[in-house]
Every structure is written in C-alpha cells, then in structure tokens.
Amino acid sequence: GCFMISNLEIELPLKVAFLAGVVSFGGLSITLQSLTFLGKCKIGFGFYIKSKATHMLLAFSVALVLGKIFI
Q1: CB–CB of 63/17 below 8 Å?
Q2: Which listed residue, of 17, 18, 24, 44, carries a Cα 20 to 30 Å from 59's Cα?
Q3: Mean pLDDT score, 59-70
C-alpha cells in the first residue's frame, strides 16, 4: 500500500498524510490478531475498529496539516 501511494501523482503533503493514515491503521492481519487477544478483555469488534479508524483519521489530519506547513 505504501509503495502504491508513493507512486501516485499527487502533491507530497497529501502523500505523507495518506501514508500516515495507512501506517497508523496497521493492516488487516494485525487488526485480526489483536482482536483474538482483545476478545478476552471483553472489548468488542465494533469498538476496536472505530478506535482504529479514529486513530487513522487523526494521523491523516495531523500529517496533512504539518505537511502543508513544513513541506
């Protein structure tokens, strides 16, 4: 995913923001592995996915703002 984003024809701050979002989400495999352990802690799938999505959106937003300022 990161390699594909790096080859897009978009401005650099937007590339950085997309990369921050993808990396912060962590991928499907890691998410499913985490859920096996979180199930024992009584944390639901929906709550965990919403938390991961919120983290991804925050990472994207912060990276975009900082990219616009510093790049």
Answers
A1: yes
A2: 44
A3: 97
The more confidently predicted of residues 63 and 36 is 63
Are the CB atoms for 54 and 24 separated by under 8 Å? Answer: no
Which two three-digit tokens encode residue 66? 């900082």
- 3-class DSSP string for the chain: CHHHHHCCCCCHHHHHHHHHHHHHHCCHHHHHHHHHHHHHHCCCHHHHHHHHHHHHHHHHHHHHHHHHHHC
User: Which pair of structure tokens corresponds to residue 36?
Assistant: 């096996």
What lies within 8 Å, CB to CB, of 55 at 6+ separation is 24, 25
Cα dist. 60→18, 20, 27, 41, 66 in Å? 6, 6, 15, 29, 10
pTM: 0.85
